[in-house]
Write a structure and sequence with these properties.
By secondary structure, the protein is an alpha/beta fold. The chain is built from two helices and 16 strands.
């Protein structure tokens, strides 16, 4: 029986992790033992990320539980808040402007796979989040997206295309049935 995908043939061609394996291992260890922990002060989180190559502006608040895949592929402006349990899966660069709020549990993911590839090769692309954006709780931003200045990504929204400046991406609301009270 023939299957379309042969995962054993995956090569990862074209994907550059950006640092030697020893640095990758040190980052994974530092993240798991320090950066993600509730006892780690936010200022120490920022400093450890900087030590590993992240470019981070002033007055940035990164809460516990935040996961950053590769800090050397992260640029963050000034006055940014990143909420508890947000995940920045940055196989490619993520650029976050100033005055941005990324709320709890948001997922920012630059990685994907080519669905047409028999070996399921990567299809990654960077993400850019411009100044003044609010990404609400549990929203998901996928590869290659630019979120324009001042845009809002509502709670649980899934964003697969660019959002213009001042735009809104909102998850569909559940249907409300029954009579409305005056």
């Amino acid at each position: 029986m023939s299957h379309f995908r042969r995962l054993a043939n995956f090569s990862g061609a074209g994907y550059d992790k950006g640092r030697p394996k020893v640095v990758q291992a040190l980052w994974v260890l530092s993240s798991a033992l320090v950066v993600e922990r509730i006892w780690c002060p936010p200022t120490l989180r920022v400093e450890v990320l900087r030590i590993f190559g992240a470019t981070i502006g002033q007055r940035v608040l990164i809460r516990h539980g935040v996961r950053v895949h590769w800090p050397w592929k992260l640029v963050v402006g000034d006055d940014v808040w990143i909420g508890v349990d947000a995940w920045l899966l940055n196989l490619e660069p993520i650029e976050i402007g100033s005055n941005v709020c990324i709320s709890q549990g948001a997922f920012i993911c630059t990685g994907s796979h080519d669905a047409k590839s028999p070996s399921f090769e990567f299809d990654n692309a960077p993400i850019c989040i411009r100044d003044g954006v609010w990404i609400a709780a549990q929203a998901t931003i996928l590869r290659g997206v630019t979120v324009g200045e001042g845009a809002l990504v509502g709670a649980t929204a899934l964003v697969v295309n660019d959002i213009p400046a001042g735009g809104r991406a909102l998850a569909p609301l559940a249907e409300i049935t029954g009579e409305m009270r005056p």
